[in-house]
Predict the 3D structure of the following.
Amino acid sequence: MPSALTKLRRRAKSLHRHLRGAAMAARALASTEHPLLAHIIPVRRCNLACTYCNEFDDFSKPVPTEEMFRRIDKLGALGTAVVTISGGEPLLHPELDDVIWRIRTNGMIAGLITNGYLLVADRIQRLNRAGLEWLQISIDNVNPDEVSKKSLKVLDRKLQLLAEHADFHVNINSVVGGGITHPQDALTIGRRALELGFTSTVGIIHDGSGQLQPLGGEERRIYDEMKSWEKRSFTRINSFQDNIAQGLPNDWRCRAGARYLYICEDGLVHYCSQQRGYPGVPLATYTRDDIRREYSAEKGCAPNCTVSCVHQVSIFDSWRGPQKPASSDRAGIASGNLVQIG
């Protein structure tokens, strides 16, 4: 277990994170012309092959570090508040610590989404030194199966190491919905996360096209129970999931391409991981004009969207800025069609 000094250091860093977050939230309410969250991909390759995931391959090389620096500097110049490193499996990038540090030197909050397999004590301590501020691991089941190897049985030792060594915030996300054989596993995973001092969230897994499917009776019971734990969660803004759980659409204004940016390994800006190809503009040439255009552009896939991070950042502008249909060159998005890049 962590020492008293480690616990004190964590509390101090947590307070600092909350103060920075509050300042960024105030800025988000004051101005609509900067991204609140960007997901950036340093490597598409992953060491796992979960069958529901369409965000990985088994061959891609890491994005060169200097190119990652240029992209992060550009996000800083656009005024981005938070940058989350995702993948693929980002821990496969050999210079990930330098990438994290570059995010911090640009004044942005640095986050990481990982499958956790590559975490050892030394690796966690290096993430501390790099300045990582929060980390999320999604665990899909208690025991690995043909759908997902991200199981509590395999990862529990990694969670113990995080509890002992991590100075950053840790959230464990579990899922219910399509492709999950044992939905009650989410409760076991969530309770273990809280026991170790982490926060716990539950997500509703999308279908193969990133769209919603209603939960069954047992899945809904589990979802409701885990929602009651949300007072201890850092992602409490998720009321949109109540409709998703029932298979109902949400009436909301998606701000993808403006408040939320998804930067693929090729350096292109996309609406999200499930709508790659729109707008498909290089980050290097992305401007405030692009942000203004996408801020006001209506996305046809929005009603049935399950992508939590986009919902969460869009909440800042739910009360303002009416949207209009996307221009004809983005017509495909109006029907929710996916365009996957190679």
